Amino acid sequence: MPVKLTAPQASSLLPVKGVKLGFTEASVRKPNRKDVLVMTLAEGSRVAGVFTKNRFCAAPVILCKDFLAQKSGIRALLVNTGCANAGTGDDGLSRAQQSCDALAALLNIQANQVLPFSTGVILEPLPVDKVIAGLPAAIANLQEDNWLNAAEAIMTTDIVAKGTSRRIQLCGKTVTITGISKGSGMIHPNMATMLGYIVTDAAVSQAALENVIQYAVNKSFNCITVDGDTSTNDSLVLMATNQAGNPEITEHSADFIKLRDALTDVAVELAQAIVRDGEGATKFMTVSVEGGKSVDECRKVGYAIAHSPLIKTAFFASDPNLGRILAAIGYAGVEDLDVNTLRLYLGDVLVAEKGGRAASYLEEQGVAIMKESDILVRVVLNRGAESVKIWTCDFSYDYVKINADYRS
Amino acid sequence: MPVKLTAPQASSLLPVKGVKLGFTEASVRKPNRKDVLVMTLAEGSRVAGVFTKNRFCAAPVILCKDFLAQKSGIRALLVNTGCANAGTGDDGLSRAQQSCDALAALLNIQANQVLPFSTGVILEPLPVDKVIAGLPAAIANLQEDNWLNAAEAIMTTDIVAKGTSRRIQLCGKTVTITGISKGSGMIHPNMATMLGYIVTDAAVSQAALENVIQYAVNKSFNCITVDGDTSTNDSLVLMATNQAGNPEITEHSADFIKLRDALTDVAVELAQAIVRDGEGATKFMTVSVEGGKSVDECRKVGYAIAHSPLIKTAFFASDPNLGRILAAIGYAGVEDLDVNTLRLYLGDVLVAEKGGRAASYLEEQGVAIMKESDILVRVVLNRGAESVKIWTCDFSYDYVKINADYRS
Predict the structure, then answer these.
(1) Do B255 and B301 belong together in one domain?
(2) Do B258 and B299 fall into the same domain?
(3) Beta-carbon separation of A355 and B88 below 8 A
């Protein structure tokens, strides 16, 4: 079960002027589930994206990067679940292109104004005929208030739909931000098998939008891990529809930071929701690494802890097996780390210092904290001023079950 | 259950002249199990060791490195299970030293001629009084033919004892090699929660012994992974007792390669046994990466596959979910990898090429291979002449169960 995470109310996902969403059940892999999403954007919208660094990036990812580089003026997004269209070679590219061609024809736009996304099983051909056959129905129900349906239409092994909204004031105008995401396995920085779509109706310059997406992804989706696997299809798209009536926000605007932080806040919530819905998760762990010489070394320590199956199974068992955390810190790859000067906390309890267990630590303190569903692991390296936070979940029987059964 | 691995017969583990082994049940952590091993070496024996690179290396590892550097002439080894004496700070060092002092006094040697080893739970104080109290009993049963008991005495979560022997001819003399190992979780290169002891009665120079241990470890213990965790206590010790009557083998001897390869062969068998007995293992996987530009990039690809929980759970399910393997190759970190020129084989079946599924591949071929308990995953990068083999096992319910329950 997801860790302190429930699906949003339909009414809590606020419509964003200039965005409409339509979905259908196209039976891409299985019947009777929402599996195709169409999103349309008002003319003049600006779009930025970040994508997986996997060398086997999927066909739709290749097209997305290409179309964004062409600065064609993106007007629609097309998402299917059930098939990732990855590891599919030239044929996969052709099928992704066909889906864009078909949607473009129906919407009377150019094919390179459609960004395609796929998620699901790798190495199988995209049943593009099914996707195309579903487009008229998806277009027929395009609406501004379809966000919850949209969040449901992009789910794969997700248990709950993920979405959130914010309202802020920019230069006296009310600006809305709504985002949705999916993903619960193959989650790793750079990035997850995850899709994220965040839209605001604010007017934002392209440069500012690119700046914000890099900032936001480094604070959110690049700080989560479920199983250390980096997907072929990860995509985060940030869109601004220019409908709120505010003066265009640039990187030099007084309100730039305000908008950036609000968008980042949405990205963090969506990223954390993916971990809370991590495959088989029963605990949500925040690994905070502080006092590092560099962000890089903090990330090494954080991910060594967050990736360790030994630690993740101990958390599943609510066992304060802190030695496994020390071991992970030790093998994180920080060559000159002095294990005698760092401190390890569980919650706010000091559990290790001077290379060993803290004299003040009582096992029952660890046991009490381990019973919680949200747990903070805090490592203070005491050698610098940098810090990072990594979010992850535990490793349970159900993780194995879900991933052993996924294709069947 | 271990994958095609059974404990050796007592008679198959050959005595090695100059080595005696004694054990006892010292109740270090639990009663009624062999948990202390004493090994004595004839005067004039040569000893080389390689140890964990974990920054939180355990107290006994620190002493081992120190004593070996002192060239004190090692005469005994002392191993306890039940407690790793790691993450224990200065107190841990003191306790490890006390155990060496006690054994040295009983054997009438110097404390720095005793190498100590511990394996078990991290971050708890070594009950050194129990270890010391058990020493007289262990010494009382020191025998040359105690190898199977010795292999059993160093087990922790291991299901079966691990040991093997070889006999070779060097310059007309019969030389014996016997080795034992333990470990089944926290297994990762550089090195595993694993202990390995290999002894030969050959006369070998110190330089040749150091050369061989580096060679052998890189071909064996540094090529295995169960869960990606690198332990605080890993140690491999190679010993030569100079009792076989052969002329001393140096790096320039005609028979150097013969001895090196026989010792390496023992190391490979012991290392593979650890994977076959991997926690919860039901399959043994050989990941062969060939045609790389460098050994390093081959290792990156091999370990990306061998560490992936998604791949390991798919193997547990006997599911030829090959897309997960392609995804792992893609995120292995080989920056300029061309996914269109590599080939992926399962056993001898070509499953992927040109960035996608091979046209000739039939799902039933993959299904048939996945039913085997020993499976070869072969990646041909087609960009160079280097290759590596990595050995790992699958990821099952029982892995979670074992590691969630380990301390209880």
Answers:
(1) no
(2) no
(3) yes
The answer, for A124 touching chain B at a CB cutoff of 8 Å, is yes
Both tokens assigned to A302: 């954080």
- Region for B106 from its dihedrals, namely left if φ exceeds 0, alpha if ψ lies in -120 to 50, beta otherwise: alpha
Residue B190, pLDDT score: 36
Active-site residue, B193 included: yes
Where does B192-287 have alpha helices with state H?
206-219, 256-276
A313–B188 CB contact, under 8 Å: no
- A256 lies in the same domain as A130: yes
Considering the entire predicted model, what is its pTM?
0.81
Q: What is the DSSP string of B6-70?
A: -PPPGGGS---TTEEEEEE---SSSSSS--EEEEEE-TT-EEEEEE---TT--HHHHHHHHHHHT
Closest in B186, B356, B395 to A89, CB measured: B356
Q: Cβ distance B204 to B249 under 8 Å?
A: yes
Are B271 and B302 contained in the same domain?
A: no
- Asked if A353 contacts A316 with a C-beta cutoff of 8 angstroms, the reply is no
Measured CA to CA, the distance from residue B30 to residue B47 in angstroms comes to: 31
Measured between CA atoms, how close is A11 to chain B, in angstroms? 36
N-term to C-term CA, chain A:
21
Query: Can you tell me whether residue A49 is helix, strand or coil?
Result: strand
CA distance B193 to chain A (A): 11
- Taking the Cβ of residue B367 and every Cβ of chain A, the question of whether any pair is shorter than 8 Å is answered with no
Chain B residues in contact with A229 (beta carbon < 8 A): 308-310, 324, 327-328, 331
Query: Which of these is catalytic: A24, A88, A193, A282?
Result: A193
Q: Tell which of A251, A276, A301 closes a domain.
A: A276
Q: Do B56 and A329 touch (CB under 8 A)?
A: yes
**Chain A residues touching B321 at Cβ < 8 A:** 121-122, 406-407
Check A232 against B313: CB less than 8 A apart.
Answer: no
* Residue A291 contacts B where some CB pair is shorter than 8 Å: no
Residues 6+ apart with CB under 8 A from B260: B211, B212, B215, B216
Q: Has residue A52 been placed in a domain?
A: yes
Name chain B contacts of A322, Cβ cutoff 8 Å: 87, 122-123
Q: Please count the residue pairs, one from chain A and one from chain B, whose beta carbons lie less than 8 angstroms apart.
A: 231
Return mean pLDDT, chain A.
Answer: 90
Q: Round to whole Å and give the CA distance between A372 and A93.
A: 46
Chain segment B254-273, per-residue pLDDT in tens? 999 999 999 999 999 998 99
Same domain, B267 and B302: no
- Stretch A185-190: mean pLDDT: 46
Predicted ipTM? Answer: 0.73
% pLDDT > 70, chain A: 95
Say if residue B368 is in the same domain as residue B300. yes
> Helix %, strand %, coil % for chain B, to 5?
35, 25, 40
Q: Token pair of B257, please?
A: 């390669």
Whether residue A403 and residue B309 make contact (CB cut-off 8 A), yes or no, is: yes
Nearest CA to B86 out of A327, A381, A380, A334 is that of: A327
Put simply, whether A37 touches B (Cβ < 8 Å) is no
Same domain? A272 vs A288: no
Together in a domain, B303 and B223: no
What is the domain count for chain A?
2
d(CA A396, CA A398): 5
Q: Are A27 and A128 in contact (CB under 8 A)?
A: no
Domain that holds residue A396: 284-405
